[in-house]
Amino acid sequence: MSAQNSSAPKSMRTPLGRVRNLGSSHSGTKDFWRQRLTAVAMIILVVPMIVVVMMLLGRNQAGAAQILGTPLIAIFVLLFIIASVWHMKIGMQVVIEDYIHDEKLKLVSIMANNFFSVAVALAAAYAIFKLSSGV
Amino acid sequence: MGCVTRPQPAKASMTARIERPLSPHLQTYRWTLTMALSIVHRATGIALYFGTLLFVWWLIAVSSGPTAYGNVQSFAASWIGRLIEFGYTWALMHHMLSGVRHLVWDLGYGFKPTEREWLTWAALIGGILLTVLLWVVAYAIGGGR
Ligand code: HEM
Ligand code: HEM
What we know:
Number of strands of chain A: 0
Structural class of chain A: mainly alpha
Distance between the termini of chain A: 58 Å
Bound molecules: protoporphyrin IX containing FE
Number of helices of chain A: 4
Oligomer: heterodimer
C-alpha cells in the first residue's frame, strides 16, 4: 500500500478520481491536520488534567475554586478545553458529512455543531477566567 | 473507466443497467476486531462530545458558588452520576489509545495483519486497565468519600 514500492505501476486512477480544488469538504486537508494536531496536544495534556481532577476530588466548592483559580492549573485546563473543543468540532463534522446526505440538513447540522462547540468553549473559558480573577 | 475504449453500446441497450463490478457489501465481510473498534472509536468520540456539557456544568458550578456546586456533587455521587463518570473515563482512555493507533497508521506504520491486531488489542485492554487504575487511585485519594 505504501510508496515503498519503487517499481510501482503507473497510476490507474482516472482524472475524475482526483480531487478538484479543495475537495468535497471545501476545506482541503486543513481539518485533517488540525484534528491530528489537537489529538497530540490532548495526549500531552491528559496527564496534567488527570492530576487536576485527582486534586479536586472530594473537595468543597471553596477548595475546588481555589485550585482551579491557580494560574498554572487554569492554563492547563484552558489548553485542554481549547484542544478538545477544536478536535471534537472537526470530528463531529466528519461524522455529519458521513451520515447526512440531505444538503440542507447537513448545513443545519454543521451550523449546530459550530454553535455547540463555541458555546461549550466560551462557557468553560468564562468559568475559568472568573475563578482566576479571584471573585 | 474513462480510458478503456470499448465498442459503443447499441442504442437499445443505452437505458439498460450497465453491469459494473461492485465492491463487496459491508455485510459480507467477516467481522474483525479492527472493524468493531473502528466504530467504537467513533462512538466514544461522540460520547465525549456530549460529555463536555457535564464538564462545563461542573466548571460553571465551581465558579457560581457552594449551592450550585452542591447540586453537581450530589448528582456526581448518585449511582447514575458515578456510572456517567466511569463511562466518561473509559471513553476518554479508550478513545485516546485508539486515537494513538490512528496516529501510528497515519505515519505509515502498523499495517501488517499481526501489527493491526496487536495495536487494536492494546487499545482495548489498555483502555480498560487505565480506567480501573484511575478509579482505584481516585478512591484511594478520597474522591469516593
Ligand atoms: C481522566 C481521568 C478522570 C478520572 C479518573 C475522573 C474521575 C472522576 C471521579 C472519581 C469523580 C467523582 C468526584 C466526586 O464525587 O467528588 C469525577 C467527577 C467528575 N468528572 Fe471526572 N475523571 C476524569 C476526567 C474527567 C474529564 C476529562 C472530565 C471532563 C471533560 C470530567 C468530568 C467530571 C465531572 C463533570 C464530574 C462531576 C463533578 C464532581 O463531582 O466533582 N472528568 N471524575
Ligand atoms: C485524548 C486524546 C485524544 C486522541 C489521541 C484522539 C484522537 C482522535 C483521532 C486520531 C481521530 C480521527 C479518527 C479517524 O480519522 O477516523 C479522532 C476522532 C474524533 N475524536 Fe478524538 N481524540 C482524543 C480526544 C477526544 C476528545 C476529548 C473528544 C471529545 C470531546 C474527541 C472527539 C472525537 C470525535 C467526535 C471524533 C470523530 C469520530 C470519527 O470520525 O469517527 N476526541 N480522535
